Amino acid sequence: MSTSENDLYTAPLDGQWEKSSYSFGSSDQCVLLMPIVGGVAFGDSKRRDLDGALRFTDQEMLAHILAVKAGQYDHLISEGSQL
Predict the structure, then answer these.
(1) Which class for 41: exposed (0-12), middle (13-18), buried (19 or more C-beta within 10 A)?
(2) 18 pairs with which residues across the strands?
(3) CA–CA distance, 27 with 45 (Å, rounded to integer)
(4) Which residues, 6+ apart, have CB-to-CB distance to 79 below 8 Å?
(5) Quick one: what percent of the chain has pLDDT higher than 70?
(6) Within its chain, how far is the Cα of 16 from the centroid?
(7) Rounded to whole angstroms, how far apart are CA atoms 4 and 57?
């Protein structure tokens, strides 16, 4: 069953936000993720008022993860950037 955009944006954000283990301590400069029915919500720790401003289906999230793993976006990172 596919999830519609309307379904994603009406899904409640009642789970726990997760941040990368690469985030430093209690940093407020993190991308947050939360599983929702049919997909994933993205939040910004600096703008909690926009919680879940972006939402993606499971298929869209998988495509993005595979692209990142394949290095498709490496050119977007400034040379010399480090975690």
Answers:
(1) buried
(2) 33
(3) 8
(4) none
(5) 89
(6) 13
(7) 8
Quick one: tokens of 10?
């009406």
What pLDDT is attached to residue 75?
93
Q: Put the strands of the sheet holding 31-36 in their side by side order.
A: 18-19, 31-36, 39-44, 54-57
Reported as a single tens digit per residue, the pLDDT across 22-53 is: 776 666 778 889 999 999 999 888 887 776 67
Residues in Cβ contact with 77 at an 8 Å cutoff, skipping those fewer than 6 apart? none
Within 10 A of 30 (CB to CB), how many other CB atoms are there?
Answer: 18
- Quote the longest CA-to-CA distance of the chain: 43
Q: Which residues of 8-17 are buried (b: 16+ CB within 10 A; e: fewer)?
A: beebeeeeeb
